[in-house]
Amino acid sequence: GNSLLRDGMNLVSYEYVACQNKEFPGVLVLSEFAGAAQSLGAGAILSNPYNVNELSSAIAYALKMSDQERQQRHRQNFMHVKVHTAQAWGETFISELHDTHIEAALRTMHIPPKLDTSLVTDSYRRSKSRLVVMGYNATLTTSANPKAQSNRQFDQIRTLTQVSAEVKEYLRAIVARENTEVLVVSGSERYKLERIFEGVEGVWLAAENGIFLKPPRKDWSLVVENINLEWMESVQLVFDYFCERTPRSYVDTRETSLVWNCKYADIDFGRNQMRDMLQHLWTGSISNAQVEILRGAKSVEARPLGVTKGGAVQRIMQVIANDTGIRPDFIFCAGHFMPRDEDIFTYFDKPEEELMEGLAPLASTFEGVPATITTCTVGRKHSLAKNHLKGSGEIAELLNLFIT
User: Fold this and answer.
1) What is the rounded average pLDDT for all residues in the chain?
2) What is the DSSP string of 187-224?
3) Is 26 helix (H, G, I), strand (E, B) or coil?
4) Average pLDDT over every residue of 324-346
5) N or C: which end of the chain has fewer CB within 10 A?
6) What is the pTM of this model?
């Protein structure tokens, strides 16, 4: 028994539960003021030590308790002790610490104002040399509403995310103008981007978060070198494990990254599964590998350590400047990016600062600061961008304004 009047963290009750014979267990009589009462109270008999009669009744009840009830109470407490180990506590602490870090980062981001499309359009039309940098997913794409597609199979719903024919036509018209370059940055695979933008001549494509680059009418080349991918098999096993146990979730296996997506799963269950997955990845053996685990709103991405869209775009800008000789006086960058990738906005908004050590800032790459630089987040309220648009529909309208 434990009749403490005041208690903090006391392990005696846990040790008592752990050493019992499961066939003939003892009964734990616990003070309601003990710290363990919150965790072992389900299987223990709680009592108020200030009330002598209540305490004596609890002891008497424990002595007369049937074997069946003893075993049932012991099972409850033993399972708690077995599961909630020091290791589990440490993993939970680290997981919540990561959550706090992410939440703090989001709080430092401002809520940008709505983009003044007329002002941007006027700047675009007055400019003599233009550079347009676009994200892909949720920026140029439109996706299906799974509720409205209930008669379709899940695999069919997944394939309904696409770039509309109108957006492709807008991009074709933009790149057809002299001294105009368009770059599309995506986390998707090379073959997927090449297939989607087939027929849109003149667009630069950056796949796998900018690791691979395809100049217009040329083959793919490697932008970010010395990528360590030894972690992929281990992470793939974890993603597959949770995919099998989360209906309507799926795994995208790419050349240099993995994405587990639960956007079509039950919201609450998907969120709980994602939290368990992150706890496992952040605290398990994989945590020591050269891999970065990123949490999205409804996804978890694993990518090589240190790879961001901002860092990759900084390298790509150098390639574009050298290959085309362009010196833009208008730059527009828009996308729906994960917080880790919003350094792409910082790169453009602070053209004279070095984003990644050893790589030239924007002003050095283009031999001067462009007259107009506009950054715009898509569908995300808190952002490092200076402006926002609600969704891909408004992006399409803006691209149309550029060419009319």
Assistant:
1) 87
2) SS-HHHHHHHTTT-TTEEEEEGGGTEEE-TTS--EESS
3) coil
4) 94
5) C
6) 0.71
151 pLDDT band, cuts 50/70/90, is very low
Residue whose entry in the numeric block shows the structure tokens 């010395």: 226
**Among 275, 267, 277, 289, which residue's Cα sits nearest to residue 244?**
277
Q: Residue 101 — pLDDT band, cuts 50, 70, 90?
A: low
Instruction: Answer whether 85's CB lies under 8 Å from 54's CB.
Output: no
d(CA 95, CA 306) in angstroms, rounded, equals: 20
Q: What are phi and psi of 2, to 5 degrees?
A: -140, 115
Q: Are 180 and 132 in contact (CB under 8 A)?
A: yes
Q: How far apart are CA 78 and CA 20, in angstroms?
A: 9
Question: Cα separation of 210 and 122, whole Å?
Answer: 30
Q: Residue 281: CA atoms inside 13 Å, Cβ hemisphere, count?
A: 29
120 three-state secondary structure:
helix
Asked whether the predicted pLDDT for residue 248 surpasses 60, the reply is yes
Q: What contacts 24+ positions apart, CB below 8 Å, involve 364-368?
A: 365/317, 365/318, 365/321, 366/317, 366/321, 366/326, 366/327, 366/328, 367/327, 368/327
Q: Please report how the helices 117-126 and 392-403 are oriented relative to each other, as an axis angle in degrees rounded to 10.
A: 30
Rounded Cα distance, 176 and 202, in Å? 8
Query: In this prediction, what percent of the chain has a pLDDT beyond 90?
Result: 55
Which tokens belong to 310? 């901002």
DSSP alpha helix (H) spans, 178-308: 190-196, 232-244, 267-283
Residues 372 and 249: their CA atoms lie apart, in Å, by 42
Q: What angle do CA 253, 88, 241 make, to 5 degrees?
A: 25
Which helix (H) or strand (E) element contains residue 377? Answer: strand 372-378
pLDDT in tens, 202-240: 999 999 999 999 999 999 999 998 899 999 999 999 999
Distance CA 329, CA 131 (A): 8
What's the start-to-end Cα distance of the chain, in Å? 82
Buried b (16+ CB within 10 A) or exposed e, 251-283: bbebebbbbbbbbbbeeeebeebbeebbbbbbb
Q: Give the pLDDT score at 350.
A: 92
Paired tokens of 159:
């394939």
Rounded Cα–Cα distance for residues 145 and 122 (Å): 35
